[in-house]
Amino acid sequence: MDKDEIFELIDQLYAQAKMQFGNAIKSRWFYDRDGCPGCGRKIKEMKWKGQKALSLNAFIYREHGVLIAYLLCGKCAKHIFERSEVDPNAPTEVHGEIEKNLKNAFVKHLGH
Ligand SMILES: [Zn+2]
Known about the structure:
Elements: H1 3-21, E1 27-31, E2 46-48, E3 51-53, E4 55-61, E5 66-72, H2 74-86, H3 93-110
Parallel strand pairs: 1-5
Antiparallel strand pairs: 2-3, 4-5
């Protein structure tokens, strides 16, 4: 997956979020730093159904009306995936950590 493909996917996620939440979503932002927002490890491509894949995720930072897209390392992606299989509605601890890190990064990016 290269940058163009990632941005294409983010466009799709953004369009979906707009349809779902309407004007509550005002912008999108891609967290493109090195390192996983869950654990700080370097992100490598992981194998997914025999193909190389990166785990692209997104969440909505409601206070700012922004869809934040981010990549996870294989370990965090796997952890979240496994937890969601057990109970799809249970937020994981990793999620909480990731969202905290992403929110901090976004607010810094705004220059506040
Ligand atoms: Zn990680």
